[in-house]
């Protein structure tokens, strides 16, 4: 495994310097040498591991270890058997809402800490653990922090978590605290926390577990490996992901390129990244043909009810842009109202998700309406977080006294005459 700058290809000065940006400002990325891999043999091996219940290979991430971190010793793996999440067929109301005929939901929300972060976090924490780190850190809107806190607790290490003091879901902060992390609320957004950690992590002895860490991306690639495996290595036309820090677009894009170049799949699906209108710097950048700087303009005051997407300066935007170009992907943005309506439909289907995840269905509906996606095409929406991650959002949608929300399901008090 080689760790190089994704922009200038400069090699990292050592294996421990993975999360510090390169001198040129670029993020690091992992490069593997897959030469000599036999795809049919690997497929067989991955199938065999589906029978495994107790070894690290029972994890939906480490099942694909050869593609993620082949050199990592098995004894260093820190796993909660993450991944292994269901791929649900959409029911009739979901199909009607989306406006297409073939739709599935990859419920990353069913991970051990309740979000997709676990797929990448197991890889980052395992790597840090193998290097002997005992202090792990992140800036977070809540899911990354809960995931890190869970893995750190699992190995008796310390998690140091920097969370914005406002506009994040309290359930996520409580989950992080309960897992035993040190939680430091601060004035500012996720973006400020990242800048702080980029500057201070070294002197504080932290191993940083945000998605600026390329091992996070390696682990997160397993989401697309697992979808492909579940579909007998035949991917749909579209993969729809929410876009905040853009780690999903980056990881799923990188994973797709692995599968395609190795010959697991023979056609590349298109990725659609859906941002929330109040926090959509990447969508604006991709649509702004006349951008004089050719660089993303950060949003200083991002705000959306989908608090996981409250990010004004997504660190991985350059990587995400390249993968979007390679797979002919597109971006869209949706309003908070569209997000919450889509969430109500997903929740009522029995699948459930947090607001950020519902941006996928809202975006899909918009892209079908605008004829970017044909009703006959097949799509998978990636649901990133569990519905109980943000009960405040549920309360304000369903229980507001002036409720005009079209899919709200109010309480119906009743007097029981017993
Ligand atoms: N929604 C995320 C923010 C992005 O975090 P990262 O792990 O991609 O750096 C969160 O839960 O913190």
UniProtKB/TrEMBL annotation:
A GO MF term: L-serine ammonia-lyase activity
CDD domains: Thr-synth_1
Class of enzymatic activity (EC top level): lyase
Residues that, per the record, bind pyridoxal 5'-phosphate: 143, 244-248, 384
Names of the cofactor(s): pyridoxal 5'-phosphate
Keywords: Amino-acid biosynthesis, Lyase, Pyridoxal phosphate, Threonine biosynthesis
Pfam families in the record: PALP
Entry superkingdom: Bacteria
N6-(pyridoxal phosphate)lysine: residues bearing it: 117
Recorded catalytic activity of this chain's protein: O-phospho-L-homoserine + H2O = L-threonine + phosphate
Enzyme Commission identifier(s): 4.2.3.1
GO biological process terms on file: isoleucine biosynthetic process; L-serine catabolic process; L-threonine catabolic process; threonine biosynthetic process
UniProt pathway annotation: Amino-acid biosynthesis; L-threonine biosynthesis; L-threonine from L-aspartate: step 5/5
Domain Tryptophan synthase beta chain-like PALP: 78-385
Cited InterPro entries: Ser/Thr_Dehydratase (IPR050147), Thr_synthase-like (IPR004450), Thr_Synthase_bac/arc (IPR026260), TrpB-like_PALP (IPR001926), TrpB-like_PALP_sf (IPR036052)
PANTHER family: L-THREONINE DEHYDRATASE CATABOLIC TDCB (PTHR48078:SF6), THREONINE DEHYDRATASE, MITOCHONDRIAL-RELATED (PTHR48078)
Family: Belongs to the threonine synthase family.
Biological role stated in the UniProt entry: Catalyzes the gamma-elimination of phosphate from L-phosphohomoserine and the beta-addition of water to produce L-threonine.
Protein name, per record: Threonine synthase
Organism: Paenibacillus selenitireducens
């Amino acid at each position: 495994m080689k760790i190089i700058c994704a922009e200038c290809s400069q090699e990292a000065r050592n294996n421990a310097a993975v999360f510090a940006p390169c001198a040129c400002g670029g993020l690091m990325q992992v490069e593997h040498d897959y030469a000599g891999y036999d795809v049919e043999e690997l497929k067989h091996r991955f199938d065999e591991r589906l029978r495994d219940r107790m070894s690290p290979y029972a994890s939906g991430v480490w099942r694909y270890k050869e593609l993620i971190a082949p050199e990592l010793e098995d004894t260093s793996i820190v796993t909660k058997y993450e991944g292994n999440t269901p791929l649900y067929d959409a029911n009739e109301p979901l199909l009607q809402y989306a406006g297409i005929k073939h739709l599935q939901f990859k419920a990353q929300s069913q991970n051990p800490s309740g979000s997709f972060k676990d797929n990448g976090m197991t890889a980052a924490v395992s790597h840090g653990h193998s290097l002997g780190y005992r202090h792990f850190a992140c800036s977070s809107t809540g899911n990354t922090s809960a995931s890190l806190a869970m893995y750190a607790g699992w190995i008796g290490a310390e998690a140091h978590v920097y969370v914005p003091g406002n506009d994040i879901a309290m359930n996520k902060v409580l989950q992080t605290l309960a897992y035993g992390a040190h939680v430091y609320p601060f004035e500012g957004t996720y973006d400020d926390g990242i800048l702080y950690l980029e500057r201070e992590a070294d002197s504080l002895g932290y191993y940083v577990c945000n998605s600026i860490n390329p091992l996070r991306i390696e682990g997160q690639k397993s989401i697309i490996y697992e979808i492909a495996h579940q579909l007998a290595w035949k991917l749909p036309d579209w993969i729809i992901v929410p876009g905040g820090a853009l780690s999903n677009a980056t990881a799923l894009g990188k994973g797709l390129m692995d599968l395609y170049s190795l010959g697991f799949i023979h056609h590349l699906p298109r990725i659609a990244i859906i941002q929330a209108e109040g926090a959509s710097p990447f969508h604006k950048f991709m649509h702004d043909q006349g951008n004089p700087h050719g660089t993303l303009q950060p949003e200083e005051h991002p705000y959306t009810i989908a608090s996981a997407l409250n990010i004004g300066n997504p660190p991985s935007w350059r990587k995400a842009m390249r993968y979007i170009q390679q797979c002919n992907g597109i971006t869209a943005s949706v309003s908070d109202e569209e997000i919450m309506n889509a969430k109500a439909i997903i929740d009522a289907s029995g699948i459930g998700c947090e607001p950020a995840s519902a941006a996928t269905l809202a975006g899909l509906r918009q892209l079908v309406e605008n004829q970017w996606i044909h009703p006959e095409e097949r799509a998978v929406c990636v649901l990133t977080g569990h519905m109980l991650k943000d009960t405040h959002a549920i309360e304000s949608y369903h229980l507001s006294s002036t409720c005009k929300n079209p899919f709200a399901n109010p309480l119906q008090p009743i007097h029981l005459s017993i």
